[in-house]
Write a structure and sequence with these properties.
Helix content of chain B: over 70%
Strand content of chain A: 15-25%
Shape of chain A: globular
Oligomer: heterodimer
Strand content of chain B: under 5%
Shape of chain B: globular
Strand order of the largest sheet of chain A: 6-7-8-3-9-10
Order of helices and strands of chain B: HHHHHEHHHHEHHHHH
Distance between the termini of chain A: 37 Å
Number of strands of chain A: 10
Helix content of chain A: 25-40%
Number of domains of chain B: 1
Largest interface: A-B, 28 and 19 residues
Structural class of chain A: alpha/beta
CATH superfamily of one domain in chain A: P-loop containing nucleotide triphosphate hydrolases
Distance between the termini of chain B: 23 Å
Number of strands of chain B: 2
Order of helices and strands of chain A: EEEHEEHEHHHEHEHEEHH
Largest sheet of chain B: 2 strands, antiparallel
Largest sheet of chain A: 6 strands, mixed
Number of helices of chain B: 14
CATH topology of one domain in chain A: Rossmann fold
CATH class of one domain in chain A: Alpha Beta
Chain lengths: ~240, ~300
């Protein structure tokens, strides 16, 4: 079966800095892929390249065999790729429900009017915000802003979901809820790429992991394999501990 | 339609009906004030349709307006008047589309400066063309009365309100609100941000050009410095901001008091009008950052005890 997403030689330069250096990996259908690595290793930049927020310097990205590198973010979204942001981005002038509807109207599967409203309400229920649709964004707690963003992203019914540190900053109970939520997304057939630092989440969610360091891929495999890989330990902890 | 919408529709219809009657009551001073109010209502409301949600401050009103007046000025002897208004609308929309494609990637102050420069550019081009042909200006001599101009503007205002109401309920209007809040989110929600902005920028472009075409007979004699006066662009911005761009009726709440104020300033202090325009602009930005609409919302919140 052909992969949902494949990166070949994906490279991004910012002037003299190579943020992402010739990355190759594939994501299979219904898989949860963890993209991990130390701070500044190029994980978020890789995600930005996939979502179209940044354009590749060289290399290619294909979605089900069709190239998407070079397309604008809105066109990639319409092909069924949706993302959250490392720093949560919401629409401050709108209430919670309209924030979610914003994802439903122009995306992969489009909904409008009463259909979009009902769908938004059901997604809010799902992410644990049932009945909070009329609340203004400014009154939400941090975890709830993350929930709204996830609901907005789900509103376009994406087939490939990109989550950029969606579990960061949650307390232990919230983390369990969050992990269960992401599991349920995989169970309904979505393919997911996680950029994540939380090791519990990586172990319990990811089928495979790609480890990056200084812009290059240094390991790939199951969470168990990569986390015991000497190269990975060296990248995180330095030479003495390897 | 909800009961609130039906109520608003009836109120709007009554208000329009009352406005239509003005020329029967007075054909001198008050008609001319009413005409100014109608003109600025049309300009400021259509301006706010684009600049309200996107926060792009456009100073191109005078450019579109001037193109409209020149459409009438050059064509009134050969074509029927109504077709000139339609033609001006098309020119305005086309010009806005071109400007939009070229500039809407610019953000913030760059967009403001470009639109201001645009009006000046068109003015200089027309001045140059007139110097080549040896003319100074154009006489627009028609039998169109001030009352007829007023009624046409009221009809145009009704069309602008209807357009604004429809856009507000449409996907395009929703897309623009998202873009105004966060353009990155908009793009990642599947919105073609450039296309949405260009499409909506065409509305004030077309409307301002039509307003210019309708008003040309009132000026009788038009020349570039009159048709493309940058003062017009600034007045429209100030009135729209004074009223507030958050609601469709917002600009109207700024146009009425400001036109009356302007009228008394320019009749009592004809040499200090620019100075007072600048002062009122400062005052509005400091005291009423969200206009009368924002003030009203704040008061309403205070009355209901902050419960929303």
């Amino acid at each position: 079966m052909s992969p949902v997403l494949s990166l070949r030689g994906a490279t991004k330069r910012f002037g003299g800095l190579v943020a992402v250096n010739g990355i190759d990996f594939d994501v299979a259908e219904h898989q949860v892929l963890g993209l991990i690595g130390p701070n500044g290793s190029g994980k978020s930049t890789t995600l930005n390249l996939i979502s179209g927020a940044l354009t590749l310097t060289s290399g290619s990205i294909k979605l089900r065999g069709a190239p998407i590198s070079g397309l604008a973010a809105q066109d990639i979204t319409r092909r069924g790729v949706s993302r959250t942001f490392q720093l949560v981005r919401l629409l401050p002038s709108m209430n919670v429900r309209d924030n979610v509807i914003a994802g439903a109207v122009f995306g992969h599967r489009r909904r409008w009017g009463a259909e979009a409203r009902d769908f938004a309400e059901s997604l809010l229920e799902r992410v644990g915000l049932g009945g909070k649709g009329q609340m203004p964004i400014g009154q939400l707690t941090y975890i709830d802003t993350k929930r709204v963003e996830l609901a907005r992203v789900l509103a376009s019914d994406p087939t490939l979901l990109l989550l950029d540190e969606w579990l960061a900053g949650l307390n232990p109970t919230e983390l369990q809820d969050g992990i269960a939520l992401i599991k349920s997304l995989r169970d309904e057939g979505r393919t997911i790429i996680l950029v994540e630092h939380v090791m519990d989440a990586i172990r319990s969610l990811c089928d495979r992991c790609v480890v990056m360091s200084s812009g290059t891929k240094i390991a790939e495999g199951t969470p168990g394999e990569v986390l015991s890989d000497p190269n990975v330990i060296r990248a995180y902890l330095g030479d003495d501990d390897a | 339609m909800s009961s609130v919408e039906i109520r608003n529709l009836i109120l709007t219809a009554i208000a329009l009906g009352v406005c239509i009657l003005l020329p029967m009551a007075d054909s001198g001073y008050w008609l001319s004030i009413g005409l100014s109010i109608a003109m600025f209502t049309v300009l400021a409301t259509s301006w706010a349709l684009f600049s309200g949600p996107t926060h792009y401050i456009s100073l191109a009103t005078a450019a579109f307006f001037g193109v409209g007046t020149y459409t009438t000025g050059l064509g009134f002897e050969t074509l029927p008047f109504w077709s000139l208004v339609a033609l001006a609308g098309m020119f305005g929309a086309l010009m806005a589309a071109l400007v939009g494609l070229a500039t809407l990637r610019l953000s913030g102050v760059y967009f403001v400066i470009f639109t201001l420069g645009l009006a000046e550019l068109v003015r200089q081009v027309i001045t140059w063309a007139q110097n080549q042909s040896g003319q100074k200006g154009l006489y627009v001599l028609t039998d169109i009365t001030e009352a007829m101009i007023y009624w046409m503007l009221i009809a145009l205002a009704a069309a602008v309100y209807l357009t604004g109401w429809l856009i507000g309920r449409s996907r395009l209007g929703f897309a623009l609100r998202i873009i105004g809040d966060d353009e990155t989110v908009a793009a990642h929600s599947g919105i073609n941000t450039a296309r949405a902005k260009v499409l909506l920028f065409m509305v004030p472009g077309a409307v301002a050009a039509m307003t210019g075409a309708i008003l040309a007979p009132r000026y009788v004699y038009i020349e570039p410095s009159l048709a493309f006066t940058p003062m017009l662009s600034f007045q429209v911005v100030i009135m729209a901001l004074l009223g507030g761009t958050g609601r469709l009726w917002g600009p109207l709440a700024g146009v009425v008091p400001f036109t009356l104020l302007w009228e008394s300033i320019s009749s009592n202090f004809p040499n200090q009008t620019t100075l007072l325009l600048g002062l009122s602009f400062l005052l509005i930005v400091y005291a009423l950052p969200r206009g009368f609409v924002g003030l009203l919302d704040r008061l309403r919140q205070r009355v209901t005890g902050g419960v929303s």
